[in-house]
Every structure is written in C-alpha cells, then in structure tokens.
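Thread: Newbie trying to understand structure tokens

Hi all, I'm a second-year student working on a class project, and my supervisor (Dr. K.) asked me to get a predicted structure for one chain before our next meeting. I've only ever worked with sequences, so writing a 3D structure as a token string is new to me. If someone could post the tokens and maybe explain what I'm looking at, I'd be very grateful. Here's the chain:
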Amino acid sequence: MRKLPFGYRLKGDRVVRDEAEQSALTIIRRLRSKGHSLEDIAQVLSEKGFKPRVADRWRPESLRQILGGARQHR
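---
Reply by user tm_fold:
Sure, no problem. This is what the structure looks like when written as tokens:
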C-alpha cells in the first residue's frame, strides 16, 4: 500500500481524516498563504506542539512535500 498523505490515516481498512494533522494542515496553508517562509511555519508548528509523522522535527522540505501533496488530495 502506498503512503497516505499527511492529514489521513488508516482505521482498520478505511482511510479517515487525522484531525490533529488536519489542524496542522490548516495552520500550514494559512501561514503559507500569508507569505510565511517554510522555516517560520516549522517553528510555529513546533511551538504549538504539532509533531511530524516520522522525523524528530519539522523541516522545510517536509512542509514543501506536504503542501504539494495537500493540493492533490483536497
């Protein structure tokens, strides 16, 4: 099975929204639309207690991938 986009997870055999990740996505999109850098967004997410799925901290490249994938899965 392919990796699910950020904001979704498996519950049994169904794909469901991950509400914590959806909240992070809202912040990411809002800040990016206001012109914030990916570095700034990473810092805000960390300060608000959001954790990336796999890494130990938010990285600009991860946010870039999330934003690219988020556009495809809205």
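A couple of things are worth pointing out once you decode it. The chain has one domain: 8-72. Residues 19-33 form the longest helix (15 residues). Feel free to ask follow-ups in this thread.
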